[in-house]
Amino acid sequence: MTDMTASAAGASSPNATLLLILKARTFIALILVFVFFSIFAPNFLSAANMVIMSKHVALNAFLAIGMTFVIVSGGIDLSVGSIVGLCGMVAGYLLLNGIDIGLGWSIQFNTLEICLMVALVGIAIGALNGFLITKLNVAPFIATLGTLYIARGAAMLSSDGKTFPNLSGNEEYGSQSYRMIGSGDFLGVPISIWMLIAVGVLAAYIARRTPLGRFIYAVGGNERAAGLSGVKVTQVKYFVYMFSGFCAALVGIIISSQLVAAHPATGDTFELNAIAAAVLGGTSMSGGRGRIGGTIVGAFVIGVLSDGLVMMGVSAFWQTVIKGLVIIAAVVIDQAQQKVQAKVALQAQAALGK
User: Fold this and answer.
1) What gap in Å lies between CA 294 and CA 217, rounded to an integer?
2) How many domains does the chain have?
3) Pair type for strands 105-107 and 185-186
4) Full domain range(s) for residue 90
5) In a domain, 297, yes or no
6) Is the pLDDT of residue 101 over 50?
């Protein structure tokens, strides 16, 4: 390396260091909030609270993983919270009533069959979002806002706004194990966490190791260029919304299992936490950039922040304000990262040119 190149590289050192800090911002934020609440929130580090908090984090992480794919592709999904509520109601209805086929007869289902049917409901709503966006050219914000209301209304209609209680299942039909999904554990770890690990690994594999993952990033980076290069943009968009709907269905199953009840208002504003976790984890709202691992860490930040504020007795209204500030801060920092990254790239090119 020449003296002039070394000088240029040295000039870029402060920006390079700042870039590393910005890229690690989610981990830094997690460490800071964890240390803060460990000091100021009573019993924050207790084993019981860690288990409860991990379950809360898992719910947000499921939605955030699906949301990451959607945002990376250049879209947004506002319907996931309502899908959670509707899928929980579908599960409750099937557990309590089965499917009436007339003449006093009904078809009853076991736990696996109920979970599969509920998952199909979430996927179907995701497919509807994909259809509205790709075939009818409805903007993602408007399309998913519409399905948000449709899913929430359907959840209300399923029970006239009432709760489906006592979802303990029926041993005769093989559905008694349903409640274990949300409250059971394996090797001392909640089943919902094992489910999150499986979905997280699958999503990370798709994103980093498959052509589909590369296509998702390509569509979000430049949809027109991706289409011209042979990427099937329509199929990619269908996939990301269907996957997001599937993740929301899992959350609906887990919550109704944990509570042993289903309420049509479940999942209200969950989409905001999912977006916050994805953005905090480094997913760019302009599309084309984001990591599943970062999103999961972002979900932990949101989860620790929410539970810690509750344990400190902070008002629910202030909690909402703080979450809003976190989202804004995450977007501002993301934009700062892009600017610093551009400077580092220019300085590196200048150094090589010399």
Assistant:
1) 16
2) 1
3) unpaired
4) 24-353
5) yes
6) yes
